[in-house]
Amino acid sequence: MTVQQKKDKNRELSFYTHNYEHLADELKKLDLLIQLRAVAFRLKTQVMQKTAASQHVYISHEEVDRLLSQNDPFVADHPDLQKIRNQREILQNEINTRVNTTIEHGMSLALPRLARLFGLSPFELQTVIICLAPELHRKYDKLYAYLQDDITRKKPSVDLVLDLLCETEVDRWRARTIFSGHAPLFRAGILHMTDDPQNPSGSSDLARFLKLDPRILNFFLGNNSIDTHLVGIAQGYNPPSTMDHVLVDPLIKTELLNLARHHFSAQKAVKKRLVFYFHGPYGVGKRDLALGICGQLNCPMLYLDIDLLLAHGSDVETLLRPAFREGLLLQAALYLGNTDVLLKEDDKAKSFFKKLAKVVEEYGWLTFLAGEKPWSPGGIFVHTVFHAVKLPVPDVPLRVMAWEKALKNQIADTGKEFAAQLANEFCLTPGQICDAAEFAQNYRASKKGQDEITLSDLYTACRNQSNQKLSELAVKIEPRYSWEDIILPEDKVAQLKEICSQVKHRYRVFGEWGFDQKLSHGKGLSVLFSGPPGTGKTMAAEVIAHELQLDLYKIDLSGVVSKYIGETEKNLSKIFQEAETSNAILFFDEADALFGKRTEVSDAHDRYANIETSYLLQKMEEYEGMVILATNIRENMDEAFTRRIRFIIEFPFPDEPSRSKIWQSHFPKEAPLGDEIDYEFLSKQFQVAGGNIKNIVLNAAFLAAENGGIIGMEHILHGTKREYEKIGKLWDEKNLYKPKSIAQHNSNQIPLNKLGGLRGL
Ligand code: ADP
Which of 284, 424, 554, 583 sits CB 3.0–4.6 Å from 429 for a disulfide? Predict the structure, then answer.
């Protein structure tokens, strides 16, 4: 079939195969309208010229009579005009039939679609066509100049539109409302009104020009490039066909999808706007979920970043409006990310939400808002269904999937194994998991060349993803100690190892074996270390963090507990809130500051202190990571509190053999040690804890650095004396060291007399 035959056939069938075909017909119709106007204009000017010539006066009596008569005799009845009117009517009917049939065939035509989207009347649509014509064909520049009797006036003016579309003066007046600034054509920015450049200040509204918006012109031409005003602020996304990639709890996915489908189902008579508010931590899948829903509703999504929008400086409404208009033109859902910046209770935020609600009401159909914190609109949205959805950090199976996806192209064999381990240990969102995998890859490349990523790189990357804000509230400790450094009775070490294995197998027990269903609270791991100062409580926390490769944050409770009522809770709440996404071990030192025995309530302050204690207990039980509390005196701790702790480890004061080992373990391999260091003497003679030994050894090393460069007993003894003074312990002459064999001493050793003050030890 030839192209012509095809066209004829379609005409027979009476539907448009393409939008352009319809536009061409509309232009034909416009041509008839122009012809009508041109013929009338010509008839009028012919008569006017004749009368003016015959009477030899500037304005004839006949012309004044004609101007004052009710009807314009030339336009109304002339047979030439009637013929054109008939032609136009036939064409109009044909267009109507073809448009209807085309729509029934499920095809979309730009003009009727625009009318439907923005609620335009046929008159408004004709106005749009008049403004569209010169954008499609330059002949209209000439024709419009001719009709306006001015070669400089090539653009359509309000007056020209009224002339073309209105038969009578009253019709013209009635039609003027569509040219007011609040009328749909201008509110939606479909047309813009501009001054006549020849006469900018003096032109009345009638003389002003009308211009079709470039985005709307593109819409007619089937070009779906985003509005140029939105470039850099909004981005279009084509959704995937399935929701499989969306790593969000399947129950949430199904519920939301059902809700959206039901809301937009054809059966529903009242079409309200639908606004979802997704809130949850960074990377939890808010955008993916929205995109997944769009995919199921078969529509694209337009992403708008509020931060960028606000940074733009201009009035937000001037950008929100084109953005939502774009959503309508593309039949796309709108997604506004980062709404947290607007959750402040200030005037700017309130005004933004009001403007947003207005635009949603006008142009929105499906809108997604997304932020990290919960929010309720408090009646801002009218004629809108608002649905807030909390997206929590996904549980282990989804995290495993996220890891497998992220590592798929990076580690071929070990990827699956790593995925399970990392998912179990780090409570990260899918977005953070992607970032971590990328970080690990870059880290590997920058530090170690191009080898395959190791588990240790991934651990580093995970810690890097964890919330670093916690460092503002607590001190981050770099765990350097491992099992071989800590000297404790065997049983204590075994207990510490059990704690580690509880973290490692948390998912298996709670998740796979269903223990989380049995426990209403207390899934987190709370541990209490008690023992005298310097017995290794902090060290043990470091060993655990090192073993599990988790961050360790030390919070000094004496700094958190405030004398101001309610402040302590606020401080604690901040710590736990930040910790929630940090995956860190929280180490509360001097826990007795808060968990000391609960006082009998004697005044208001005590009562508040007890509330604070209960508050911390509750927060600890909700916290899914590990919390370690340390106290010097267990007896000082509240019984009710200690009952709820999962592990309690007593750190004993080190006995003589342990002290000996601690002494030995504190000298680094590289340190220049004298031969005669008598560990037996040191551990027997000095009843000090590991913390003191550490100080003494360090002092001795500095003394030796100043006095000869070899660490000897005299330096250690001097350091011990200083430590005794510091802790208020009595120094006894018995502490003087008598070398087992003076003769044996190393010739390199500094003679005791050279140390002056040390001799007196
Ligand atoms: P605590 O937290 O109980 O007050 P720390 O763990 O801070 O004590 O101990 C301080 C230092 O003392 C440690 O960094 C370590 O050098 C040393 N130390 C304490 N206890 C031990 C121990 N059991 N084994 C080895 N070193 C110890």
Answer: 284
